[in-house]
Write a structure and sequence with these properties.
This protein has one domain: Diaminopimelate Epimerase, Chain A, domain 1, CATH 3.10.310.50. The protein is built from five helices and four strands; from the N terminus they run H-E-H-E-E-H-H-H-E. It is globular. By secondary structure, the chain is of the alpha/beta class. The relative contact order is 0.25.
C-alpha cells in the first residue's frame, strides 16, 4: 500500500478535522506527514521533514509534527522548542504509546486522531488561543513521494 492510499477520503477528512479541532483553542500548529519508507533513523527523518515543512518558523515555536512511514512501520512525534520547553520529558512518549496501541490493531486513523487531540490539549494549556492568532500552517495531510533521494542531510 502506498502512503497516499493509506486513508480513504473520509478518513483523511476525519484526521484533518481532528487537527483543526486540536488547534481551535491554541496558537500551536500540528501537521501530519505520511510516506511509504523512512530510509533513515525515524527521528532524523522526522526532523528533516519538520524543517522542510517550515514548522520551526511558527511565531511561538510551538509546532508538532506527526511523522508516519507506512511500509517501514515507523512513526515519530516531534515538537518544536517552544512546546518542548513546557511539557514533561515523557509527554511525547505517552502520546506515542497511546497511538501505538491503535496502530498495532491496524487502526491508524484512531491512533492519529487520538494523538493529535492529546497534543492539542497540551498546546491549549501552554499556548492558549489569542484573538489575533492565525492558522500558520495547513491542516492537510502531507504525503511524501516514494523515491530514493530521501536524506536527512541538507
Amino acid at each position: 500500500m502506498s502512503a497516499e492510499g493509506t486513508f480513504t477520503e473520509e478518513e483523511r477528512l476525519r484526521i484533518e478535522e481532528s487537527i483543526a479541532l486540536a488547534e481551535k483553542n491554541t496558537s500551536g500548529e500540528i501537521r501530519l506527514f505520511v510516506e511509504d519508507e523512512c530510509g533513515d533513523n525515524v527521528l532524523d527523518r522526522a526532523a528533516f521533514i519538520f524543517k522542510e515543512l517550515k514548522m520551526h518558523m511558527t511565531k511561538d515555536r510551538n509546532g508538532v509534527l506527526f511523522y508516519l512511514a507506512i511500509t517501514s512501520r515507523q512513526f515519530a512525534i516531534l515538537g518544536d522548542s517552544g512546546i518542548n520547553s513546557k511539557v514533561s520529558t515523557d509527554f511525547w512518549y505517552e502520546i506515542k504509546m497511546a497511538m501505538q496501541n491503535h496502530f498495532t490493531t491496524g487502526d491508524f486513523v484512531k491512533g492519529l486522531t487520538n494523538g493529535v487531540l492529546m497534543s492539542g490539549e497540551a498546546l491549549r494549556t501552554h499556548f492558549p488561543y489569542l484573538k489575533d492568532d492565525k492558522n500558520e500552517l495547513s491542516n492537510e495531510i502531507v504525503f511524501g513521494k516514494n523515491d530514493s533521494s530521501k536524506s536527512s542531510k541538507s
